[in-house]
Amino acid sequence: MRYSVQTRDYLILRDGKPFGDEKNFGGSSYSSIMPQTLAGMVRTAVGFSRDANYFSTEENIRNILDVEIQKILYAATRNGKRDFLVPPPADVVFTKTGHKIKTNVLTFAEMPENCGTDIRNRDWLVPTLDCSEKPAKDVPSRWFWDTFTQYMNGRLSEGSVFSLDDLGIASFITDTQIHNGLNPETRSTQEGRLFANKQLYMAAKNCSDGSLIPVELSFDVSEPLPTGDTYLGGERRTVDVRESKAEFPACPAIFDNQRYLKLVLLTHGSFGGWCPSWLQPDMNADGIEFVCIPGTEYKVRLRSACVSGWDGVSGWDYASKLRDGKKGKPKPLAKLVRPGSVYLLEIQNPAQSSDIAKLLWGNSICDGQSKKDGFGLVALGLASNQVKV
Predict the structure, then answer these.
(1) What's the rounded mean pLDDT across residues 102-108?
(2) Domain residues for 167?
(3) Measuring CA to CA, how many Å separate 47 from each of 36, 39, 41, 341?
(4) Which of 45, 53, 158, 305 is the most buried (most CB within 10 A)?
């Protein structure tokens, strides 16, 4: 089933970190909707559609976690046309040329003999960039799909120049509100105790004329979802859920007989580390062994990666309310790999590259509950012209 989420109000999407001690200006919010936040909205709506008292048993709470979130992509409407939005791949660096942005694509090469690294593995390829210009300050937070298509096909050449409006959107519209902390017993203000809410509105502005670009979140879900108004996030802000006929981009027929492919994270990666455990090589070994993609006989190995950094995620353990009779408790903070991170795969048998691309396209490279929550969804790109070995 395919749906979209739109807003008529600002959203507040907390990252789960505590506010801290008195006089600590703490707590922060995300700049986009996390997969697990979307999953929470969907599962809550599905559960209550089954039974008004659905969440009163621990068995039901366990069962609702099987509702799977799939194929998550933002979409923007500009000039009357709907266009999907993709996080900028981490192997592209933006510099400024006049009033425009220049793209600089990294290459992957063996470590030169006159250089050093703390990575002992001789098969690991190092991302490099021959560029002396300063990074641009105003860069896209999301690419339009047309831009990503150029990247995916290997046609985003070194030094390609774009205006920001043609490349993608700079950021969603946000606002920040600062609040006083309250004494829970007296409901009076606590002196010096402040916290901030970053509010996110699902729209962006054209840099050239300031016109509004509406943004919505499109996704697939494994079970029918009630449509209409529902709540999203811990602040219970209202969003509009609609059935969608949007066709997500299909895997293009460009990946035949490729030795190298790039995986680009479309959503945060929940791996317990910087890459999936089944793929992670031993950096202290002499080489990198080929491994099977889980559930298949296709063999690949990770030759390099560009990781954009990490975001912390927490949440609320509702099931603990039934176990201990209290209100529940926070989940432990976990580190997630940011969207846009790139993993360079080498295919043992290039004749299988097209089948591997179809297998991975739009799907998750996570496993277990993280996969059901919508983490680790990937798109692919050609990589041969970036690998220098």
Answers:
(1) 91
(2) 2-388
(3) 16, 12, 10, 34
(4) 305
Q: Give the C-alpha separation, 174 to 10, whole Å.
A: 8
The span from the CA of 47 to the CA of 41, in Å, is 10
Report d(CA 363, CA 288) in Å as an integer.
25
Secondary structure class of 384 (helix, strand, coil)? helix
Please tell me the number of Cα atoms within 13 Å of 66 on its side-chain side. Answer: 4
Q: What is the percent of the chain where pLDDT is above 70? A: 92
pTM: 0.90
Tell me which of 121 and 350 has the higher pLDDT.
350
Distances (CA, A) of 16 to 181, 272, 330: 17, 17, 8
Rounded CA separation 119/114 (Å): 15
Strand order in the sheet with 11-12: 11-12, 189-201, 173-182
| pLDDT tier for residue 92 given thresholds of 50, 70 and 90 | very high
Provide the number of structural domains found in the chain: 1
User: Which run of H or E residues covers position 41?
Assistant: helix 35-50
What is the Cα–Cα distance from 223 to 96, expressed in whole angstroms? 46
Q: Nearest-CA neighbor of 292 among 341, 356, 343, 372?
A: 356
Structure tokens at 320: 């603990």
Single-letter amino acid, residue 106: L
Strand 316-317 relative to strand 291-292, pairing: unpaired
pLDDT above 90: percentage of residues in the chain: 52
DSSP string covering 349-369: SGGGHHHHHHHHTTSBS--HH
